[in-house]
Amino acid sequence: MIDTIDRDVDLVVLPEMFSTGFTMSSSEVAETMAGETVAWMRGQASQRRLTIVGSVVIEDGSYFNRLVWMPPDGRATTYDKRHLFRMAGEHEHYAAGPKRVVVTTGSWRVCLSVCYDLRFPVWLRCRNDYDLLLCVANWPAARQTAWNILLRARAVENQCYMAAVNRIGTDGNGIEYRGGSAVYDWNGVALAEGTDHPAVLYASLDLDAVGAYRQRFPAWRDADEFRVLS
Questions:
Q1: Which residue is catalytic, options 31, 81, 135, 160?
Q2: 161 forms bridges with which residues in the sheet?
């Protein structure tokens, strides 16, 4: 699918656990940061001169559902999923990440998140410290309505762009996924929306535009203070 990209892009986003599907078999499928999947990401980013992002099962002292941000220079930034989906027992097979991560690329500030994190607005609260909230997911069809609502809610309340990628199809456990990958602006207006079919979505983001909106409508100045681990 990456080979079908027909225009210049800066960022390619893949789903949660894109190389395995969502699995509790962490000890069986885990790789290290020196493993095949991260090496593939590094090679793709270098060859194509873009940043590639997706989460991978990584062993690093413990097992982590780790979002890897891989820029063209190969210097990866990682975010370990903070909120583990206990209804599937994820907290029994993975360690929770200790900190929130905002990565800088050019003048952009990007907050990284994984799937279930989307339900926790205090964790993802923008303190005027990011412009784009990125979420990679394996979000089941049974809760598709919540996915659709939460994406827009996170964009509006944080006055930021929201870009989210969800898988489709049926996994090895018989769980159905309907996609719904999307990019929204700060008002929840769709810049790109996917369906339940395989596709490459494109969206162009304007840093000046989101900054200007925050100046015109500075709701962030009146936000409540919350203690966030960082």
A1: 81
A2: 132
Q: How far does Cα 174 stand from its chain's mean position? A: 24
Threshold 0.90, pTM exceeds: yes
In angstroms, rounded to a whole number, what is the distance separating the alpha carbons of residues 94 and 75?
24
Alpha-carbon distance of 90 to 170, in angstroms, equals 19
Residue 74: CB partners within 8 Å, gap ≥ 6? 42, 45, 46
- Annotated catalytic, 111? no
- Whether residue 81 lies in the annotated active site: yes
Tokens read off for 228: 């966030």
Q: Which of 127, 159, 134, 136 is nearest to 228 (CA)?
A: 127
Per DSSP, the residues of 171-197 read: -TTS-EEE---EEE-TT--EEEE--SS
Per residue in 40-87, pLDDT (tens digit) is 999 999 999 999 999 999 999 999 999 999 999 999 999 999 999 999
Residue 213: CA count within 13 A, CB half-sphere: 16
Torsion of CA 61, 93, 90, 104, to 10 degrees: 10
59 is annotated as an active-site residue: no
Picking from 47, 90, 53, the residue whose alpha carbon sits closest to that of residue 72 is 47
Q: How far apart are CA 96 and CA 98, in angstroms?
A: 6
Locate 32 and state its tokens: 């290290």
Which among 31, 90, 115, 160 is annotated as catalytic? 115
Conformation bin of residue 209: beta by default, left when phi > 0, alpha when psi is -120 to 50: alpha
